[in-house]
Amino acid sequence: ELTLQPLSGYSAFPGPVVAVIMDGIGLGPADDSNGVHVAYTPTLDRLFQDKLMFRLKAHGKAVGLPGDGDMGNSEVGHNSLGAGRVFAQGAKLVNEAIAGGTIFTGRTWKEVMARGGQGGTVHFIGMVSDGNVHSHIEQLYALLDRCAAEKVKRVRVHALIDGRDVGEKSALDYIVPLEQRLAAISGSGLDYRIASGGGRMVTTMDRYNANWQVVENGWKAHVLGEGRQFTAASEAVAAYYAEDPAMTDQYMASFVIADGGTPVGTINDGDAVILFNFRGDRAIEISRAFEEDVFTEFERVRRPDVLYAGMMQYDGDALIPKQYLVEPPAIDRTLGEYLCAAGVTSYAISETQKFGHVTYFWNGNKSGYIDKKLETYDEVPSDRITFDLRPWMKAAEITDRVIEAVAGGGYKFIRLNLANGDMVGHTGIEPAVRIAVETVDLCLGRILAAVGKAGGIALVTADHGNADCMWTEKKGKRTPMVAHTLNPVPCIIVDYSGSNAFVASGCADPGLSNVAATVCNLLGYQAPEIYDPSLVRLQP
Ligand code: 3PG
Ligand code: CO
C-alpha cells in the first residue's frame, strides 16, 4: 500500500532532486527589522523572482498547532514537510487531553498519583513559558491543580527558563505567577514549591547529543540538589540579571532552591518525575538519564528509583520514555517510507543542532533509518558555542558534502538543513544574523550550481521564520526578538533538468504540508492520494 505510481508523460532526468531547508528564513516585511531583507542575498533575490516561487504557511493550524497565533517551529515544520499532511501536534493534543480529562484517567497518571499517595514527592521538570514550542505553562498549571485536587502532599517543580521562544528577559513573567500559584496551593496545607531550575540552553534541554554537559548541569540541580543556592527562583533570576546586565534567560546558570543550605527538593527513591515538555528533541537526553540502567554520558552519582514519565513519548523508534501521559501524533506514511518502498536512494545531512530535524523530525519523530540500504544520514558536528560567535556555523562543510553527494550521482533525493537563520536568529544579535543569512545565501548559490551541473531539480524552502524579525519597536525603543515568527516561508523550485515540465498547480493557500507531494512529482511519481496536493503539475 506504500506504492508510488509513475507520473505519466514525465521523462527521467539525470540529476537528483535536492530539498534545501533554510531553517528560520521566513518572508517578512521589507524593513530594517528583517534580517533576510537587510542581508546581501543575490541568490535568494534571484529566486524570489522565480515563476515557481510559492509562499507557504508555516505556523498555526496549517502545521497542526492549536491556533493561528502559534508561531511555527522546527518540529512541526519538518513533520509537515516529511509527512505530506497535517497532524494535530503535541501542543494541541495535550490541550485536548487536559480539556477532555483523559490525561488524568490513564494508567501513567494514576501511577504518579499512587506515588504521591505513598509519601513520594511528585516532581515536574520542564520549561515554564507560553512559547508553545516545547511546553506551555498553562498545561503545567493544569497538572499542578489536579495534584492538589487529588491531595498529593508534596510537589516540586524544576523550572527551566525559556527566553528563546518568548522574550529574552521574560523569566519573571512566568516564575512569579508560578510561585504565587504554588504558594496558594500550599496555603491549603499542601507543600508545593519550585526546587531547582536554570536557563534552557545550559540546563537539561540539550538535543541530538550536542553537549551532554547541559544535561549533567540539570541532573545535578534537579536530582542531586547541587548548584548555586537561592531561597526562591524569582530571587535567582533577579540576582542573575543584577550581576550581569547582558545576561538573558536562556543562558542562566542552573540554580537550587534551599532552606538554610538544604535543597528543598532533590529527587529520591519512591518519587515520581514528570517531564512536562511535549516536544521530543530536547527531552530525550534527560529522559535517557533517568531511564537507562547502563549510562555513560555522564556520572549520575545517584540514580533514584523513580516512576519517570514524559508528557508524550518522544521517540517512537527507541521508545523513549517508556511511560508517558499523552499519545504522540501518529505520524505514518511519511515521504521517507514511500520513497524507500519505491527504491529511491536518499541522502540527508545537517550539522548536529539540526541533524535530527532532517532525520528524526522528518520521519515523524522516529530516530532510526527506514531502510539503511537506501538511505544515508550524515552529521557535521556543530560547535559548542552560542552561534552569534560563529554565525557561519557549519554551512560550508554541509555544502561541501552536498556538492559531493550531488556530483557522485548515488542519490536520487537529497535533503539538507542549513541551521544559520534559526540558530543565530535565536541569539537576537543583529550583525550576526546578517552574516548568518549571507552564509546561507552563499552556500545556496554553490548548491544550486552543483544541481545545475548535474541536471537535477532544487526545491528551496524553510521550516518557519526567525531571522526575518530581529527586533520589535515600541515607542522608539527596540527589543531584540529571538523567537520564531508567524511569517510564511518561501518555496522555490529551480529546474535544471532541461525538461521544464512543471507549472504551478494553483493549489489554494499552500503550506509546508504541500511539499512532500511536490517532491514526489519532481521525482517522477504521482503523489499518494492521502497527501496534501502538490504545488506543481505537469505542463499541459
Ligand atoms: C529550540 O529548541 O531551539 C527552540 O525552542 C525552537 O527552535 P527550532 O524549532 O528551530 O528547533
Ligand atoms: Co528555532
Automatic annotation (TrEMBL):
Transmembrane segments: none annotated. It catalyses: (2R)-2-phosphoglycerate = (2R)-3-phosphoglycerate. It is an enzyme of class 5 (isomerase). The keyword Hydrolase does not apply. It holds the Pfam family Metalloenzyme. Residues 94-315 form the BPG-independent PGAM N-terminal domain. Residues 16-525 form the Metalloenzyme domain. It comes from the Bacteria. Catalyzes the interconversion of 2-phosphoglycerate and 3-phosphoglycerate. This is 2,3-bisphosphoglycerate-independent phosphoglycerate mutase. It comes from Desulfoprunum benzoelyticum. The lineage of its organism: Bacteria, Pseudomonadati, Thermodesulfobacteriota, Desulfobulbia, Desulfobulbales.
